[in-house]
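Q: Is it fine to ask for two folds in a single conversation?
A: Yes, each is treated on its own. Send the first.
Q: Here.
A: Result:
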Amino acid sequence: MESRFTKDVNRECPLSEYPRPQLVRKQWECLNGPWDYAILPEGEQVREWKRSILVPFSPETELSGVGRILQPDEVLWYHRTFDHFPIRKGDRTYLHFGAVDQRAVVLVNGKEAGSHRGGYTSFTLDITDLLKIGENHLMVKVQDFLDLEEDSRGKQSGKPGGIWYTPQSGIWQTVWMETVPEDHISSLRIEPDYDSECCRVTVVSNSDDTVVINMEGVSFVGRANKTMELRPEEFHPWSPEDPHLYRFTVRLGEDEVESYFGIRKFSVEKDDKGTPRLFLNGSPYFHNGLLDQGYWPDGLYTAPTDEAMIYDIEAMKAMGFNCLRKHIKIEPDRWYYHCDRLGMLVWQDMPSGGGTYSPLVTFTSVALSRFSLKDDNYRLFARESEDGREEYYRELNDMIAQLYNFVSIAVWVPFNEGWGQFDAAKAVDFIQQRDTSRTIDHASGWHDQHVGEIQSLHIYFKPVRYREDKYGRAVCLTEFGGITLGLEAHTFEAKESGYFRSKDLNTVLEDFRKIQKTDHPRVEERTGGCDLHAGQRCGRGSERGPHL
């Protein structure tokens, strides 16, 4: 079904904004737009291209122009041509993919350029040596095993319904290309230090050349692959109420990029009454947020336009929320950029994977009794495959590396409600080895392993009774509500999914207030400072997905 933004999609090159806001180059080429495609049984070769798909929308979406679900025993083939012109000796041309679900092999002029496993993280390929002057052919082979394999799949299901969503596959984020000098900037490592009122930046490069960073008219000189300290003349912390960003440029030889940072500090500390709470910039800060599913009526995982993403975040802010938990999904970089500049805290989930979940583990035993199981029983938690467990850590590592620099991300959430959970205490150690600047909600909802700084509660079916955590952690109510109301022309099927149903628009707000005041009285005063996900995206539908 369409959204209000469907009509605004540029059918020649949708989502054409520069896709990497923290490493911006002026010269680049967007490869979004109409591509050839074919869906064939495994092993069958493409003989001719007859049909067109609009990239970066998955074939399951309305916006793609296809409207077909890729099956696990099928292969989705993409094809397009692009022109390449002479470049200087030593220059390198890189091909970037925002995300391809689930496994991809990329070919340039009939030769394999590389492959990628994991449907949520970006990847880059050096295609310089495969290019020829003039017309070049780009092909992408995609397979998506969905829930038949243990790779991360999020809330996609081969049998969608209730809280499980329509599956999707293929290219679902921007494809783009850029040519850089032989000695160039590969990435930036940005580490704000609130206590020292500065930011430390490491310019990662294939060379150790001199680096010049310009910020607010001041130049900082250092060397690539060495940490540089940027100290603003005026210290201006970042917060949702005042999302101040420092803009800067980096030059290494002939290569130049634009970037930004914000200075803030996330922690769990005790307030003046001795209660552990979430802190922002040295003071208690209440996270009042929503469980953000990130599904669109017309594009599923992919927002139809950049303006649609902005509207979504601004609408949540206008409702009085300061936090979004990005639920079992990783968004394009531009979504986090908009959270950074608009001032919206983010709790970032790791997309779930594993085998077929047991309702005994994921719902019954814990939703009603709050009984937690030890998560080293791989069979019980649908994590028997050693390869699947290793893949989880590969994808978790890639997610942290990809999102580390974004200012707004306050909390990492490696597991949710026992969906493929395993060794959560080890996952906490794994994250802390890579990032000590953020808080970790190790097991959102249940199967608490008594580690980390947060006790995370999902309570839908009974009033909240606050109890101090005996392990000294901040107690956070991280899911509740689930009010649903289906409106004609705003839902794609008559069946509704939710935990409470409102009669009509007039009663939605009343029901929301009842949950806040009766079932969850004085949440902010009694808990560790987190009241996430009231109403499961209140005003946008139930867990079934957003309805515009």
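Q: Second one now.
A: Result:
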Amino acid sequence: MTTEYMNEEHAAAATDDDVVLEVTDLSVTFPSDDGPLPAVREVSYRLRRGEALGIVGESGSGKSVTSMAIMGLLPRNARVEGSAKVLGQEILGLSDKEISKVRGQKIAMIFQDPLTSLNPVYTIGYQIAEAVLAHKKVSKQVAMARALELLEIVGIPSPDQRLKQYPHELSGGMRQRVVIAIAMANDPDVIIADEPTTALDVTVQAQVLDALQRARRETGAALVLITHDLGVVAGQVDRVGVMYAGRIVESGPVEEVFYRPRMPYALGLLGSLPRLDGDRSDRLTPILGTPPSLRDLPEGCGFAPRCPMARDLCHQEEPQLLLTLEGGDRGPAEAGDADGHTAACHFSGELTGVEASDLFQATSVDTEGVGSVAEVEAAESLIAEAREEYLEEARAEPETAPETAGSTEPEVLLSATDLVKHFPIRSQGLLRRKVGEVQAVSGVSLDLRERETLALVGESGCGKSTTARLLLNLIRLTSGELTYMGRPLHGLSDRRMRPLRKDLQLVFQDPFASLDPRMAVADIIGEPMRIHGSGHRDARKRVKELLELVGLNPEHGSRYPHEFSGGQRQRIGVARALSLNPRVLVLDEPVSALDVSIQAGVINLLEDLQDELGLSYLFVSHDLSVVKHIADRVSVMYLGKIVETATTEQLFRAPAHPYTQALISAIPLPDPIKERTRERIIVTGDIPSPANPPSGCRFRTRCPKFAGELSEAERTKCVEEPPELLDRGAGHRDACHYSQVVELI
């Protein structure tokens, strides 16, 4: 979004009293076998024409339920109380027929998963035209012409062809832009976007956000943007509301909330984020504990069990959402103060000038059920003792191979040379003939050294996870060489690989899917030891040590995976991987599915374990903010090839390849001023099919430099000649004929 556009919106919000959406004391309660579940509690906000409001918070805080209640999309057994008015019309309690006249015309919604929002049996053009015909008396030809116009507005290439296609024929980013087109079909007054960029790559996310802003400019609609990404909020909205345990606990102008938070929870969220503009040596500051169960909310402030500032008053009386005044005072919000900075904290004045690291002690201990900082310190002390005992046992075990005498360079543990993996495409029918192949990995070479973290980054479908599995010999190479400590791995049978599995372990992206739901956690962690011949008594003792090592209570070993939170399940996955004392951990998107506050604790844990156990990590991720914080070196992949590799400092300070530059520039910063004034490098289109990659440079079909800066002769070279991965100095290599270093941060 441009600075000029945001400034215009701020001016409009300041002078225009035209309220298009007014939510007052909205509460939603669901019945359950264990009693009523208050999912939303007395949420209130006002939205003016052309204004953007961001709603943020952890999973389960009530963000999406709030929007579904406003749209009248909750199940019939949900009890909805309060008021929601669109242009002065009360919409809560309307019949299906009455609210259908409002939905799509006055208020529209963009859902999180576009594939489930679109009907798979109808074309894209039909579905957009249907939204027009539902509210306007026009011909089908006029409605289809409007559909074509909308696809052009949201930036979909070749819109006349896309009209005739079905949802499954479009990429995720294109499907999301189609949903945006449907939402803006009738020029609504309010658009609610519920996590519109979740699960999208950062380059596609930038395209979708750009399409969303085009929709706002075209329709003049106000926007409610629901997201967990604080960077997206910083650059896209005027005001922000922070939700916790079903209620708004802080709200105000985005600059006020981001630069001067007055609720410990909001301060903790901002402090737990890895940032592109942050210092890599700074330790992340997680929020201790986990959100409370909505069925069993604590007395007083819902955040008190996790808050280092909590006092007796916090456990006795729930704080009201009051205006924050100068000098740390608080006062009731009047009718004209809807745009003011409010916070629900008894002691909000004490947060003036306080940093998250000052308030929340950085820890890797999981603190579910821990109610005080003193108890956290006691838990950390016990875990420190367990870690020291674990380290002594690990040191006592013989090394897999001796270090070279007099060596100063870190030892190369895992080495790959020209890895190639093609998957066959087979025809339908009984014979299943091979009709093509997917070039998933095409000539990847890399080295992983002792005690280092090598990050493998890129968009979905670039071959990151396939490369990780090739390095562990979990899938067979098409060609290439793979060695571990000088010993060839390619061609080894499963039986001959088994002894080496002790040294090479994998932590999966989805901890819930990778843990057997029928086994207790102690059995899950101990299973690798039993497979490799450890005695039952030794395994049981080691499981207890491992649970303590990753910051979990060893008494919970009898529980099952579904009884743990997402962050706890990921810690269980790490403990399982550590059970055989490995030297290399391959981490496949280990924090992508976690809330930022929980993500920070897992990242701190991984850093601590690396320091204490001397582990080497191959860290597969698409989140460059996390990569910048944890990695020593970075390799960037695009369509099966590595296009740039360098140290983390080199890559983020001065990226050379156009694709790397686009990736870094697309990562949002949780800083409103910086985010709105940053230079953007926009990548258009989608990744080509790996079954039919472009000739020459594979990135040329999306490269901004190829499209606008190169001469005809230079473009011909890009089309005909694949660029080699060449060293530009100091080990910084890139695969671009016309690479140029650009400083972006």
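Q: Anything structural to flag on that second result?
A: Two points. The CA atoms of residues 665 and 678 lie 8 Å apart. The two ends are 18 Å apart (CA to CA).
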